[in-house]
Specification:
The chain is built from 16 helices and 5 strands. The chain has 525 residues and is mainly α. Among the domains are: 148 residues, no CATH class; 80 residues; 119 residues, no CATH class. Helix 5 packs parallel to helix 7. The N terminus is likely disordered.
Length: 525
């Protein structure tokens, strides 16, 4: 209990001190905020609205507490306000209503396809059983006796149906990963083929067996066995078309993010455009670094500052036309452009210097904090079991010593919107639980990681739009270009076919590896 009280007093004391020391500075900064920052926060909220509410990343109430978190968690760790998060504009309301309508349509289409596939699958599995049972129910007394061969066919039908059921469950009954704009052509063709196949068998069964009341029961069972065999071959065809056909790489695609130009290369097989787009999105969340719009505002602000420094004075009076002013603006901009590269160089050098300085301070602070928690663990082992801190309490005990330094580093590298205080505390407690080093703890913050590393509320986009000149159900071809658009950026995909490679063989005789040393008069051997 004493250790827990010391931890809470240390954490609250740090929070009280840091909150009062920065109160006046934060109030002055809030008074001088421009409307541009409000618009930027509204755009971030629009991304948050697009996220699916049914899949929270955190398993406890921390996800709800994180919604009211602001970026000043390093300075004000005692108060959490969420009034600004509930502000919403008329455009956001219209966007929400449109997304709800789209989601309802997608859900209906998804459930309709699943219902049709389930009904057809049930019909397929009940048909051989019905072929065997109907003669026993309708004209049992007129049937010929079933011998040993006929009874053996019962076992064959049972095991083949079990194999078919297992294969169908493994191939078709899987949770869908996405809602595609069009139907999967091969899957639709297989469903149509199965329907026509079963319908043909029922038609023949009704005309030749039900109407004539065939008494050869062994022939009827053999007819059901042939149906099951044909269904197994259709299942093999489905495996080839749906799984094996796309394994061999045939195309190389280049994916470029439109905002910062980050690109990746992938190899794909024979896929349709919509399924290739799905593969691109799955790899995007894993391979691409998280999209950070704050890194793109530096160049825009620099250009706006240069243009704001240009002033044109009309010395000839108001009657002069605007052509002279335009020429003066162009000439001044050209002179400013000649020296802008020096400003860019010194700005980047100063930014790198500040980042390295903040990184060094952060590494020292985290190492000191981890050495403190190790010393606490050594001391706590000698105390009673009821006084030992859990990883969450230990993380709260050492977090105030690194909070300010970590916040300054995240602000300098413009990553503060992706890391909240609650997420950092959870990561810190995770590292303490698994006995990880300070370097392992800092890996998430020193280097921007893939998109999946961060909270879903920070990056996940529910709706993607596929833009293509070709039909999305058509296969990939050389030179095809399609675009995947979301709210803030787009992914441009360029498809190139892997060239045909011709290899030739040349035999080298091992006895031919003989050499002669040539000596000249100038050489000293």
């Amino acid at each position: 209990m004493s250790a827990a009280m010391d931890t809470e007093s240390t954490y609250s004391g740090y929070s009280h001190y840091s909150g009062h020391s920065k109160k006046a500075h934060r109030q002055g900064r809030d008074r001088h905020k421009s409307p541009r920052s409000k618009d930027g926060s509204r755009s971030e909220k629009s991304v948050t609205i697009q996220t699916p509410p049914a899949e929270p990343l955190l398993g406890n109430d921390a996800s709800r507490a994180e919604e009211g978190q602001d970026d000043n968690w390093g300075e004000t760790t005692t108060a959490i306000t969420g009034t600004s998060e509930h502000s919403i504009s008329q455009e956001d309301i219209a966007r929400i209503s449109k997304d709800l309508e789209d989601s309802v349509g997608l859900d209906c289409k998804r459930y309709l396809g699943l219902t049709v596939a389930a009904v057809l699958g049930l019909l397929v599995f009940l048909t051989p059983i019905a072929f065997i049972l109907l003669p026993q129910i309708l004209w049992r007394d007129d049937l010929e006796p079933c011998g040993t061969v006929c009874e053996g066919l019962f076992i064959s039908v049972a095991f083949k149906l079990l194999i078919l059921l297992t294969g169908t469950w493994a191939l078709f009954f899987r949770q869908p990963k996405a809602d595609l704009p069009r139907v999967f052509v091969f899957r639709a063709l297989l469903l149509v083929l199965i329907f026509l196949f079963v319908f043909s068998y029922w038609l023949f069964y009704g005309v030749r067996i039900l109407d004539l009341k065939d008494t050869n029961y062994q022939g009827i069972v053999q007819y059901a066995v042939s149906l099951v065999d044909a269904l197994l071959f259709i299942h093999y065809l489905a495996i080839v078309l749906l799984e094996l056909r796309q394994l061999q790489p045939m195309f190389t695609i280049k994916v470029v993010r439109s905002t910062d130009g980050e690109s990746r290369y992938y190899s794909l097989g024979h896929l349709s455009i919509q399924r290739a787009a799905l593969v691109v999105l799955e790899n995007y969340y894993r391979d691409f670094t998280v999209y950070n719009p704050a890194l793109l505002t530096a160049s825009k602000s620099r250009a706006a500052k240069h243009m704001a420094g240009l002033k044109v004075y009309n010395v000839d009076g108001p009657g002069n036309n605007a052509s002279g002013q335009s020429r003066a603006m162009i000439a001044a901009a050209a002179r400013r452009r000649d020296s802008s590269h020096n400003e860019l160089y010194y700005e980047e050098a100063d930014h790198e210097r500040r980042v390295k300085k903040r990184r060094a301070r952060l590494m020292v602070a985290v190492e000191e904090a981890f050495t403190h928690i190790k010393r606490l663990q050594a001391e706590e082992q000698q105390k009673a079991p009821g006084e030992i801190m859990d990883p969450r309490e230990a993380a709260q005990a050492i977090f105030p010593s690194m909070a300010r330094v970590l916040q300054k580093y995240l602000r300098t590298t413009r990553q503060q919107q992706y890391h909240s205080m609650e997420s950092i505390l959870q990561h810190l407690s995770f590292c303490i639980t698994n006995n990880m080093t300070p370097k392992a703890f800092l890996e998430r913050y020193l280097n921007p990681g893939p998109t999946l590393q961060y909270d879903r509320d920070r990056w996940f986009s529910k709706q993607w739009t596929l833009v293509s000149e070709e039909a999305v159900t058509s296969g990939l071809q050389d030179g095809v270009v399609f675009v995947l658009k979301c709210l803030d950026f787009s992914l441009v995909v360029n498809v190139k076919k892997i060239p045909f490679i011709k290899l030739s063989e040349e035999f080298i005789d091992p006895k031919s590896h003989k050499f002669v040393l040539r000596l000249q008069s100038e050489t000293s051997v």
